[in-house]
UniProtKB/TrEMBL annotation:
Keyword Hydrolase assigned: yes
Main location: cytoplasm
MF term (GO), any: 5-hydroxymethyl-dUMP N-hydrolase activity
Enzyme Commission number(s): 3.2.2.-
The organism of origin for this protein: Mus caroli
GO biological process terms on file: deoxyribonucleoside monophosphate catabolic process; nucleoside metabolic process; purine nucleotide catabolic process
GO cellular component, one term: cytoplasm
Family classification: Belongs to the 2'-deoxynucleoside 5'-phosphate N-hydrolase 1 family.
EC class: hydrolase
Location of the protein in the cell: Cytoplasm; Nucleus
Residues reported to bind substrate: 13-19, 28, 93, 117-119
Protein name: 2'-deoxynucleoside 5'-phosphate N-hydrolase 1
Amino acid sequence: MAASGELVPCSVYFCGSIRGGREDQALYARIVSRLRRYGKVLTEHVADAELEPRGEEASGGDQLIHERDLAWLQQADVVVAEVTQPSLGVGYELGRAVALGKPILCLFRPQSGRVLSAMIRGAADGSRFQVWDYAEEEVETMLHRGQKRVPHSLELVVEMTVGLHVGAGN
């Protein structure tokens, strides 16, 4: 947050299922659209409707994708993951983000009928690793600056990374 109260752009690493299933792609697009308001989304391709469930066709193959994505993860100021659709890749990215000390926000829809992995929900510490349960219709408002739904304990992380001015004028 800049001293004048303006938003400070940041780099966001967005995680969502690719090879684990593309059923939530349209939702990913809505989330990425919202996150773009706060800075550069390094992995916006995850929300691309053209991305096939088999993933990208990179000339360097899976190793190139792995190296590129880890470089983006290191560059990111914050990690936001939609974790409703189970994905080995997202779990891996989250583990690496924890090891790098990145602030993490996981989004989960209980109405999906799925149960979130204990390794994700159990990692929530109330500050640097957050898990928010939400309904799909809430996606735009829950990531809106000043939104009261943002837990107070995440306020500093969000202000410093995503550039959300939580609680301003509320």
